[in-house]
Amino acid sequence: MPYEMILTETQGRVGLIRLNRPQALNALCDQLMTELGQALRDYDADPAIAAIVVTGSEKAFAAGADIKEMKDRTFPAVYLNDFIGERWETVLEIRKPVIAAVAGFALGGGCELAMMCDLIIAADTAKFGQPEINLGIIPGAGGSQRLTRAIGKSKAMEMILTGRMMDAAEAERSNLVCRVVPAADLIAEAVKIGEKIASLSAPSVAMAKEAVNAAFESTLTEGVRTERRLFLSLFATEDQKEGMAAFAEKRKPAFRNR
Ligand SMILES: CC(C)=CC(=O)SCCNC(=O)CCNC(=O)[C@H](O)C(C)(C)COP(=O)(O)OP(=O)(O)OC[C@H]1O[C@@H](n2cnc3c(N)ncnc32)[C@H](O)[C@@H]1OP(=O)(O)O
User: Fold this and answer.
1) What are the catalytic residues?
2) Residues with CB under 6 A from ligand 1
3) Ligand 1 atom 54: the closest Cα is on which residue?
4) What ipTM score was computed for the predicted complex, to two decimals?
5) Which residues contact 79 (CB under 8 A, 6 or more apart)?
6) What is the CA(160)–ligand 1 centre distance, in A?
7) Number of H helices, E strands in the chain
8) Of all protein residues, whose CA lies closest to atom 37 belonging to ligand 1?
9) For residue 52, with 0-12 CB atoms within 10 Å meaning exposed, 13-18 middle and 19 or more buried, which class applies?
10) Cα(27) to centroid of ligand 1, in Å?
11) How many whole angstroms separate alpha carbon 213 and alpha carbon 192?
């Protein structure tokens, strides 16, 4: 499918999706979110791809939902059309690791999209925020929940109640992002993480993702139970035998994803 608002390219076994609506700072309109969802599904289904990087431009990862598109929507329209749910949560359905590579603004829905990804790597130019309060609304794509779990109640409350932005250094200190890198290195570093993941056993990668996500979606007891079930099931894979044999034999493992 030809895209108008995103660009896709593959680098080795990493699928790169670039939001490409520069005139609106990658504001997340319906068309962009539909295209993003399609590209994510395509890479998820592609056996040649092991990890996905979602990025924006130097100036903006995404400045949020498209305010101009959304401003005249009525309650029945947003409710009946399941605004947000319908298009925004595709990234949560993706089984392969999804890395958000954020430079510039990641605001509102942009910050929420980044937080729906499995990890966020940030350029030193990144700015995160949930400024919806300035528009007379609140976060609607999970920001009040995911930001609070990532950075804690007090800081999340301050950001969401005042609309204050957080720079990259603060985002790293607050555990919102895994790492901050110079802007010029952002894509290369994100792809490097994807390539490292691609070199590992796909079943263990998928189960590691499922186990970490269980920490967000269940109680500690349920999460530990999920981890245990996944951990034990990996002993049914050839890759577990190969990984441990390779360690004992002091050689590199040759994983076959089974
Ligand atoms: C997910 C849900 C449910 C909700 C949301 O996400 S609500 C949106 C939350 N985001 C915001 O409130 C951020 C809005 N944008 C800004 O505050 C500023 O644009 C900025 C601080 C990110 C950057 O300011 P700057 O002065 O550098 O650039 P602008 O001239 O303001 O923007 C350039 C160009 O982009 C258009 N733009 C920016 N953000 C959006 C947006 N979220 N929706 C639609 N359009 C956006 C902006 O209007 C301008 O275009 P025009 O010159 O053609 O008006």
Assistant:
1) 65, 109, 112, 132
2) 24-25, 27, 63-68, 105, 107-109, 112, 131-132, 135, 140-141
3) 24
4) 0.98
5) none
6) 17
7) 13, 10
8) 24
9) buried
10) 7
11) 22
Please name each of the domains of the chain with its CATH number.
6-198 (3.90.226.10), 201-249 (1.10.12.10)
User: Whose alpha carbon is nearest atom 22 of ligand 1?
Assistant: 63
Digit-by-digit pLDDT tens for the chain (258 residues) are 689 999 999 999 999 999 999 999 999 999 999 999 999 999 999 999 999 999 999 999 999 999 999 999 999 999 999 999 878 999 999 999 999 999 999 999 999 999 999 999 999 999 999 999 999 999 999 999 999 999 999 999 999 999 999 999 999 999 999 999 999 999 999 999 999 999 999 999 999 999 999 999 899 999 999 999 999 999 999 999 999 999 999 999 999 999
**Distance (Å) from CA 129 to ligand 1 centroid:** 12
Q: How far apart are alpha carbons 42 and 105 in whole angstroms?
A: 27
Residues 6+ apart with CB under 8 A from 31: 4, 5
Q: What is the pTM of this model?
A: 0.97
CA separation for the pair 210, 203 (Å, rounded):
11
* 3-class SS letters over 16-59: EEEECCHHHCCCECHHHHHHHHHHHHHHHHCCCCCEEEEECCCC
